[in-house]
């Protein structure tokens, strides 16, 4: 029995981004294609097979503990990005300001795609969805620099629309216009989730 099911959902890659240096800023540089390695996009600032733990996982690990890097890529949907921009009062929002790795179009409610889902490219390159990428204030600084007075609007507008983080399960090349097939775990939702959230 297969643990993952291919779906009829397809997403087209509309934008690929590369963050060269996190110390210099969050902004991504647009690419036409990228090689996905086991550490993410080759040479990218978010890449690496491991990473130091941060505030997102302090309940599990002391800060700066070496852990597996399941945040190699930031994947957003074009549809949700448009909603964020609209709520902020902007005509459009450059994905570079968000440090985005991929903008894809065609999967509804991408932010809520089940963890461990796969996005598979024609080359065989496969991304594993980790979980929702919660909005933070870092993109707000980049947005504010480009659109004065709008930066503070990002975090509330991006709630439940920030996309997902992902890591590379199978290496291969991706390119603008590639179609990604969504595969989802073949299992029911855990029935105790409500109680676990109250813990």
What is the element layout, followed by pairings?
Elements: E1 4-18, E2 29-31, E3 33-37, E4 40-41, E5 50-52, E6 66-68, E7 73-77, H1 78-88, E8 102-105, E9 118-120, E10 126-132, H2 138-146, H3 154-158, E11 164-170, E12 172-175, E13 179-185, H4 193-197
Parallel strand pairs: 7-8
Antiparallel strand pairs: 1-2, 1-8, 1-13, 3-4, 3-12, 5-6, 7-11, 9-10, 9-13, 10-11
Q: What count of helical segments does DSSP give?
A: 4
Helix/strand structural class:
alpha+beta
Portion in strands: 25-35%
Portion of residues within helices: 10-25%
Helix/strand order: EEEEEEEHEEEHHEEEH
Describe the structure.
By secondary structure, the protein is α+β, with helices and mostly antiparallel strands. It has a single domain (4-197), classed as PK beta-barrel domain-like (M1 Pyruvate Kinase, Domain 3, Beta Barrel), CATH 2.40.33. It is 15% helix and 34% strand. The strands form three sheets. It has a seven-stranded mixed beta barrel with strand order 1-8-7-11-10-9-13. A three-stranded antiparallel sheet has the order 4-3-12, with no helix packed on it. Strand 7, helix 1 and strand 8 form a beta-alpha-beta unit.
